[in-house]
Specification:
about 70% helix, Hypothetical protein af1432, mainly alpha, single chain, 11 helices, globular, about 200 residues
Length: about 200
């Protein structure tokens, strides 16, 4: 993405997103870029995935459903009823079809930034973490700890975010997407194995 393309994309997103969502998007993109520099990921990819991660967030549920159905995206019953979950998959389709993104790693980073998934790539982890810790976030539990952890160990940070998210969902009685639980179980096992061999 050259300078002109970057500016045009930011202007387009500013015109399409609610202002608060646009500010969040810039925060995620900047944070993803910083994490990419920290961990040696491609900066352009991190910035692009950060800019587009919520590109479908301001759409209504029925429009998100149409986008996913037209693209043949498999959806769970829970996703069909939740814009909070569905916007990630709709956003990946939109990033590909509207914004011309054909890098699967970038598309997956958008697709899984809400729930995560077992075996995430470095870019996927970066966008997952950046969405949680960007400077505008202020309500998540353990945020100072998580923000510090983000620049020390991306895997430990992912695990902490998943743990805190599951606790929050359990405390509030909100439905948990099975992928979030699977992702937590996967990274918890990885953490246990790593500690065993240390």
């Amino acid at each position: 993405m050259n300078k002109k393309e970057r500016i045009n994309l930011i202007r387009e997103l500013e015109s399409e997103l609610a202002y608060g969502r646009f500010v969040h998007t810039l925060g995620v993109s900047g944070t993803a870029s910083a994490l990419a520099m920290c961990y040696g990921e491609e900066l352009d990819k991190a910035e692009l995935a950060g800019l587009l991660h919520d590109c479908a967030k301001c759409m209504n549920l029925s429009k998100m459903l149409k986008i996913c159905e037209k693209a043949g995206v498999e959806l769970s019953d829970l996703e069909k009823k939740s814009g909070s979950l569905l916007h990630s998959k709709a956003g990946a389709v939109l990033a590909r079809d509207k914004y011309g993104v054909n890098d699967e790693d970038v598309l997956n980073a958008i697709r899984y930034h809400t729930t995560g998934r077992p075996g995430m790539s470095l870019l996927e982890k970066i966008v997952f973490v950046a969405d949680y810790i960007e400077p505008g976030r202020d309500t998540a539990p353990n945020l100072p700890i998580v923000r510090k952890l983000a620049y020390e160990s991306i895997d430990d940070c992912v695990l902490q975010i998943l743990k805190d998210t599951l606790h929050y969902l359990a405390d509030t009685g909100e439905s948990t997407d099975p992928m979030t639980q699977k992702t937590y179980d996967y990274y918890r096992r990885c953490d246990e194995e790593r500690k065993f061999y240390e």
